[in-house]
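Dear colleague,

Following up on yesterday's call, I've attached the two folding results inline so they're easy to grep. Please treat them as preliminary; we haven't cross-checked anything against experimental data yet. The first protein's sequence and structure tokens come first.
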Amino acid sequence: MRQDMLSKVFQREFSYVRPRFIRGHRRAGARRPARAYGYHSHAGGVHADARPTAMRRGLPHDEGTFMRVLLAEDNVRLARATEVILEKNGLTVEVSHDGLEALDALDSGYFDVAVLDIMMPGLDGLEVLRRVRAEGNDVPVILLTAKTQVDDKVAGLGDGADDYITKPYDSRELVARIRAAARHRSGASSKVRFGDLVIEEDSSTLTTRTGSLGVNQREAQMAVLLAHAGGRTVDTDWLRERVWDGEALDGEVELYASYLNGKLDALGSRVKVEGSDRDGWRMVETVGA
């Protein structure tokens, strides 16, 4: 790795004068309604985690942590009632009323957990699950089933569902299962791969075929979140909640994207972060670079 490139990266990083984000600018994100990733969402009941940003190691989704859930349920009244319950428990919910709509949402945005009713028009929940897994999307999936759908439960678990819950269900059980599924996903490993890049969250290290480079904790966490999204665009407010506990200053997400891109360039990686505060952010790999 060229030492002059590394020197430029570090000089650029520390040449930013942080007070320019403070004077005349309000704090961003702490109490804003969450925006969906290309969709409208309800933001009631979302609370930023009040713990200091010593990073929530492994991103455990405890009480109050900003978490996004897709709820796919064709019964409009049941979907609305479930949405209200989940939001009162601090979750941000997007609702789909048929399988095609649910699949489109999962293809277009990042969710921490998807709750799919098996019996839906368009595509049933099992077919949505199969297509999502075939595309390599590892979002935790909880199936909503009837007591008589034993074969569907077995099929769903075989096709990659993480859990199921039987109707009628206790709302407390559903919330607990959603949080457990999210914890299982995020706590599996601190090492994440995306293209030619390996991100080691525990040691805050980026590694490619040419070498390794240390980054700070926020850079590492931002990189892990974008890598987990698998190239899908994630909302700026979502990153602010996860990386900065809702206390990011105006322009800070964009600043950290530039930090990461400078270091990825120094490592000779084909991976880069692209986007804007308005449109959201994603991690991409340039093919053939």
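Below is the second protein, in the same order (sequence, then structure):
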Amino acid sequence: MGQTDAVDQISVLHLRYFLAVVEEGSVRAAADRLRIAQPSLSQQIGRLERRLGMRLFHRHPAGMTPTHDGEQIAAVARTFMAGLCSDKAGQRPVSRVSVPRGTEGRVLGLLLDRFGDGVQFVRIDSARAARALARGDVEAALVRHPLPRLAADCEVLEVYDAPLGVVASAEHPLATRQELDWVHLRDQRLLWFDEQRAPEFAQWLLGVCRERGWDPLLYVMDPAGSGLVDDALARSSDLVALRPRPDSTGPAITWIPLTEPPIERYLLIGRKPVARR
């Protein structure tokens, strides 16, 4: 991946997390403020540094301070983030935003930061989001990458990305490993969903699995609440799911990082100029 491509993949989430660490002076304090897991925040900061090709922080036993490059990036990030919250004159107000089922709380928090507490979330799967937007049912739509077919007058903004890891029973034979290679998954079934909800995402994710040498037997369980899904995982020794690292898991479930993980991306689409601030 070229440097320009890497920079293009920097999201609003990266900047929000980066500024939180700058302002709090440590990953632990920033994670508490953001209400996310400390390892997840550390991964996001490391990903931002790799994509920018520069070191953003001096690491000390007492915390973290920005480097010279980090201070410059922080100044730019503050200006950009302030623009997101600035006067919305000349732009259509956003009161209804569609979100796919299973959208994490941290992603909804980013949308609240963007549109304000008065925004209403409407559950619409990625496959139907573009049509809902075209009909005027919503003013903006959150969808999983890859994008469905869009109208020419739509704008797109990446708002969140995270590496997918393996979710399994805490008693699963793989649960004691600190990290999993794809070869470890070859005898595992994959907990799956109704592909009609997000066909582009389903095709992409299965393609990544097969590229990594895993062509899983799919165990479709949809629709289902998260409690039922976790229960199915907890009861099985050969069933796993692929998800971003959760803020917390129940005692019966564990999350294990993957080498060369797929990166799940959420994109915000809207009629010009809704998606841009």
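For the second protein, one point worth flagging: The first strand starts at residue 57 and ends at 60.

Best wishes,
A.L.
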